[in-house]
């Protein structure tokens, strides 16, 4: 089977650089979608599926094609002006990207059995390509416009109305929508009117390298204090990730636990200063003891960060993927997460972590303190790893993708 995967703005190779760049994990340009696309394609290829991933060429230095794993090729298409493009500006170049995609596919000596689109821009491009090729289209939303709109309070921004209309059309048109949680499935069905039979719940997993490792060794490699408790945040430097909530909670935690260290992967001083909505966070964070602001890091480096931590916090206002919580559990680390989106299905409250109300810094601080004090008992590592392996590993997810793809191809559904 040959699958054409579209990941418009999220180049999966952006997470593999050894030197932090604007496209490494935790930056504005890379995150859950990049991780999901790369790992899914790699796991499918291990099972014998040939995967070509089409994305926008965001740098003149980037190769036109890259083989990132046996059976997985990234194809970069020119669309719009050279260089990086803010994600929300991709709509301006989407027609050019779609034209380039269709032209490239038309010029090949082979065809594809199935299309998987990721994010709404890709979904629009995928619908046109589906009609051209006459093959089934599977779609993954990756996030939802109305939730992002609410988290930013941008009620007058017409961009979101365009996005939601597109998300609704995609959900009603594709052969299948893959959702990573029951919560996401309900949203696609109730808000977008998708056929319930077209919705397939397949939880995401973590990269195979994410597993428990020696905590002291991880701290030594990262230069983190080996004695006190370590709290980890991983995410883009964006307001919707709950950074202000975390900043207020940290003021409480550093007074309550003098030896505690907060490590933040993604944000750095520059990214906090350049975003007016995040500038107040500097006043909350950059005091003694200041947190470690690691900035963006290559995705594989996260393994040490997770294993160095006593608890990972995910204080997001909304979180469709929840991949940080999944990666933490794969490493045996308990999670404190907002009671929103897919996080509600990922974190087993009171077993593998604690759930808190979004935006509530007091709840967040208290939950971290409870975990540090041992509220989850003596074996949170075992509980987290057990839940990961039984619900979220790619060893469970990949066969479900293969079955879905096979069923759609055999049925001839478009």
UniProtKB/TrEMBL annotation:
<dbReference type="Pfam" id="PF13579">
    <property type="entry name" value="Glyco_trans_4_4"/>
</dbReference>
<keyword id="KW-0328">Glycosyltransferase</keyword>
<dbReference type="GO" id="GO:0016757">
    <property type="term" value="F:glycosyltransferase activity"/>
</dbReference>
<protein>
    <submittedName>
        <fullName>Glycosyltransferase</fullName>
        <ecNumber>2.4.-.-</ecNumber>
    </submittedName>
</protein>
<feature type="compositionally biased region" description="Polar residues">
    <location>
        <begin position="13"/>
        <end position="27"/>
    </location>
</feature>
<dbReference type="Pfam" id="PF00534">
    <property type="entry name" value="Glycos_transf_1"/>
</dbReference>
<keyword id="KW-0808">Transferase</keyword>
<dbReference type="InterPro" id="IPR050194">
    <property type="entry name" value="Glycosyltransferase_grp1"/>
</dbReference>
<feature type="domain" description="Glycosyl transferase family 1">
    <location>
        <begin position="219"/>
        <end position="373"/>
    </location>
</feature>
<feature type="domain" description="Glycosyltransferase subfamily 4-like N-terminal">
    <location>
        <begin position="31"/>
        <end position="205"/>
    </location>
</feature>
<feature type="region of interest" description="Disordered">
    <location>
        <begin position="1"/>
        <end position="27"/>
    </location>
</feature>
<dbReference type="InterPro" id="IPR028098">
    <property type="entry name" value="Glyco_trans_4-like_N"/>
</dbReference>
<dbReference type="InterPro" id="IPR001296">
    <property type="entry name" value="Glyco_trans_1"/>
</dbReference>
């Amino acid at each position: 089977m040959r699958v054409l995967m579209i990941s418009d703005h999220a180049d999966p190779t952006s997470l593999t650089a050894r030197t932090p760049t604007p496209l490494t994990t935790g930056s504005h340009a890379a995150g859950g979608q990049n991780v999901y696309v790369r790992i899914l394609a790699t796991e499918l290829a291990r099972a014998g599926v040939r995967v070509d991933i089409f994305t926008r060429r965001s740098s003149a230095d980037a190769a036109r094609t890259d083989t990132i794993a046996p059976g997985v090729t990234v194809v970069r298409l020119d669309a719009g002006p050279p260089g990086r493009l803010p994600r929300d500006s991709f709509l301006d170049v989407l027609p050019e990207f779609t034209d380039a995609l269709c032209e490239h596919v038309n010029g090949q000596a082979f065809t594809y059995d199935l299309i998987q689109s990721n994010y709404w821009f890709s979904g629009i491009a995928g619908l046109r390509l589906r009609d051209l090729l006459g093959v089934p289209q599977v779609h993954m939303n990756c996030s939802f416009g109305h939730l992002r709109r609410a988290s930013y309070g941008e009620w007058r921004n017409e961009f979101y109305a365009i996005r939601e209309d597109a998300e609704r059309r995609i959900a009603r048109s594709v052969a299948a929508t893959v959702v990573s949680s029951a919560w996401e499935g309900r949203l696609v069905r109730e808000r977008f009117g998708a056929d319930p039979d077209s919705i397939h719940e397949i939880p995401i997993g973590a990269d195979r390298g994410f597993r428990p490792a020696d905590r002291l060794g991880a701290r030594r490699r990262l230069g983190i204090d080996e004695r006190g408790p370590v709290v980890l945040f991983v995410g883009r430097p964006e307001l919707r990730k709950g950074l202000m909530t975390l900043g207020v909670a940290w003021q409480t935690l550093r007074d309550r636990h003098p030896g505690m260290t907060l490590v933040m992967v993604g944000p750095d001083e520059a990214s906090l200063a350049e975003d007016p909505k995040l500038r107040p966070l500097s006043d909350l964070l950059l005091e003694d003891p200041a947190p470690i602001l690691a900035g963006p890091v290559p995705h594989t480096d996260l393994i040490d960060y997770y294993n160095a931590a006593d608890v990972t916090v995910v204080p997001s206002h909304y979180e469709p993927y929840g991949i940080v919580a999944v990666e933490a559990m794969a490493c045996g680390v308990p999670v404190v997460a907002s009671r929103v989106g897919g996080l509600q299905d990922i974190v087993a409250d009171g077993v593998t972590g604690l759930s808190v109300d979004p935006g509530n810094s007091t709840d967040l601080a208290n939950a971290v303190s409870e975990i540090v004090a041992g509220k989850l008992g003596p074996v949170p590592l075992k509980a987290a790893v057990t839940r990961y392996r039984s619900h979220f590993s790619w060893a469970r997810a990949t066969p479900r993708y293969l079955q879905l793809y096979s069923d759609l191809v055999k049925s001839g559904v478009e």
